[in-house]
Amino acid sequence: VSIWAALAGGFVGTLVLTTTLRAASELRLTRIDLPFLLGTAFVTDRKRAKLLGYFIHFFFGFSFAIGYLLIFDAIGRAGWLLGALLGLLHGAFAGSVLVNVMLPLVHPRMGDPTTSADREALLEPPGFLMLSYGRGTPLVTLAAHVAYGAIVGGFIAIAR
Amino acid sequence: LRSSVDPASGPRVGAAGGGYPPIRDLAAVGDGRTVALVSNTGTVEWLPLPYVDSAPVFGALLDRNRSGSFTLAPTDPYEVSRRYVPDTNVLETTFRTAGGSVRVSDAMTLSLGGGLLPFAELARRIEGLSGDVAMRWRVEPRFGYGSRAPRITGRAGVPVAASGSDAIAVNAWGAGETQLGPDHVEGTFTVAGGARAMLSLAIAHQEPLVIPSRAETERRLDLTAASWRRWVADRAISQSPYRDAMVRSALVLKLLIHAPTGALAAAPTTSLPEEIGGEQNWDYRFSWVRDSAFAMNALLEIGCQSEAEAFLWWLMHASQLTHPRLQVLYRLDGGLDAPERTLPLDGYAGSRPVRTGNAAVEQLQMDVYGDVFQTAWLFANERGRLDPEFGERLAEMADLVCDEWSRPDSGIWEVRDEPRHFTQSKMMCWVALDRARRLAQGGHLPSRNAARWLEATTAIGSFIESRCWSERRRSYTRSADADALDAAVLLGVVFGYGEPMRARATIDAIRDDLAQGPLVMRYRAPDGVTREGAFVSCSFWLTEALARIGRRDDAARLFEQVMGLANDVGLYSEEIDRASSAFLGNFPQGLTHLSLISAAAAILRPDGRGEA
């Protein structure tokens, strides 16, 4: 039951996370677009990249939800507040390591701080805390991940 | 070109005063992230680290006392000549003394060769050509715009200068015994004919230092030269009398493209003055939207398809947060803010203030919309398609131009007094909506508001023709209801605005009023006495305008005269003093080199791309 609850939470959480980031972009708070960043690792057509990126992002959303479930199982507790706390850590990790450091290393079209003139990058690297995508990015990303964590935590807690 | 220098006799003849080298004596090397400026005395006068918009670790160009430098030259009087290794950004400086001659090859190495690479690396290879030449070198880094001297220590036998999260390892191979001072590292050595030495700075930023072996640095320097040659060979620059100038400009352009993001810096320096001792000292280490149309044209003309695509992507990403409005400039990392502040530095030849940041970011300059549409138009023509999302955004921008074209603005010259109805701004609004309609006709933009764009295009045209044309001057004027001329309206002609008779008359009027030989002033000061230098881009705009109205021979003659104004290695600054031919302003200037490529292409291909 918990696995299905985690997956359901992961689905809803990713939906909320993606929507939050998209809304923030519309409000001109950030230029971050995670599905776009993920999709352009495979294709350069922007619309196809976004579509593909949504699927990849949902896959990650499910994967992280399973990860949350394992942590809840390990500590014997679950709940939306604990989920929100994990979401905060998750968001901090995403901003400082996952998207900032790891994505430029594996993304074939993204520049990184050591890209030199022998290569042309189509996508700018996010920079520390993804600040290159706008000053509001760290806050928005953290808030979206906290929401994701709270939702996953809440779903798992209800199933228990 | 040869210059004679006596190291013992202080500032050279022709120097700008206070020991500052003439800007004309500088040459640039870089790696796509930063640019070093090396003078013809072998001194690295400027090197921002880790990126071109960072504080310089060598900034002697802006302060002889507080900022650092890296000197490398014979100890005896010498003659010097230099060139770039053909088709590369590797600089060769040859010193000839009474005892012999020596060649120094300077380059920022590229991330090539595999293995563990330093974050960045400046390599200086010294080769004895004949006889014996005694050399002296001194590395004197400063951090934080001269506010922080480094801590110099030896680590595993290698001197390291460190400050905060930055560190520089000074590697000297065959370059004498290294002496460590409190704030510098230095050495002397004699190089014999056929012998080689190597100096390199291995640079770390927010990571531990990677200290390379001599073999690795030597190999990387060779690979870097080969990589530049390959890059040029892959470009579509045909054989012509202009090939060398176009290749050099393309290589400068490549130095100014910020490789991590694809942004194009206007120049790698800040506060090189437009007038010696004056206050017109600006930070150009940002990407100006205005340069975009020329950049796209130049990139496509020389066959840089991937750079063109990367630049368009960067432009559309950077402007996303301000959409549908455009800022005048963006940071190289795509950031929006560029707060202007002054630094406590002496300034080049006493030209203060020294500024970082650029307050022009706050200005309204309506011409930038025309530049973006021209950029998209060129790209769409080349590729046969435009990303639908870009198309949507451009359509919204076109709607904004319809709403706002009638506002006064600060214009292309970024005047800091009252906004005016600048003619060139109106012309570029016309270009924006004209290109929007054409893109919509080609299916690249949604055409829902095309009728509105046509209506506004007509209104802008009427405004220009009725209020920005002077019958007395027989020319389009600088601004509405005024009589003064402005070389910027040549851009209107270049981009296809204007009825042919008026375009031709304007070209002649501007040439009569603002040109002095091949040099063209932007405009005359209100009192008629213009102290600033001639704006080199204006000479190329005049050239291109002549070519585009079919006066190719005239254009070619002018172009060849302007080519003669480059420095000994083919570089241009922003302005040239009309009396002394001294370079003024930031250096090397991207817009000048972009305009050179565009003008050359227009002469070589009179049916030039993008003409209306």
Q: How many strand elements of chain A?
A: 0
Helix-residue proportion of chain B: 25-40%
Structural class of chain B: alpha+beta
Mean pLDDT of chain B: 93
Please state the overall shape of chain B, judged from the principal axes of the Cα atoms: globular
**Fraction of residues of chain A in helices?**
55-70%
Task: Report the order of strands and helices of chain A.
Answer: HHHHH
Beta-strand level of the residues of chain B, as a percent range?
A: 15-25%
Q: Mean pLDDT of chain A, as a whole number?
A: 92
Structure overview:
- The complex is a heterodimer of chains A (160) and B (612).
- Chain A contains five helices and no strands.
- In chain A, 69% of the residues lie in helices and 0% in strands.
- Chain A is mainly α.
- By secondary structure, chain B is of the alpha+beta class.
- Chain B has 13 helices and 29 strands.
- In chain B, the strands form eight sheets. In chain B, strands 1, 6, 7, 8, 9, 10, 11, 12, 13, 14, 15 and 16 form a twelve-stranded antiparallel sheet that branches. Chain B has a four-stranded antiparallel sheet with strand order 2-3-4-5, covered by helices on one side. Chain B has a three-stranded antiparallel sheet with strand order 27-28-29.
- The radius of gyration of chain B is 24 Å and the shape is globular.
- The relative contact order of chain B is 0.10.
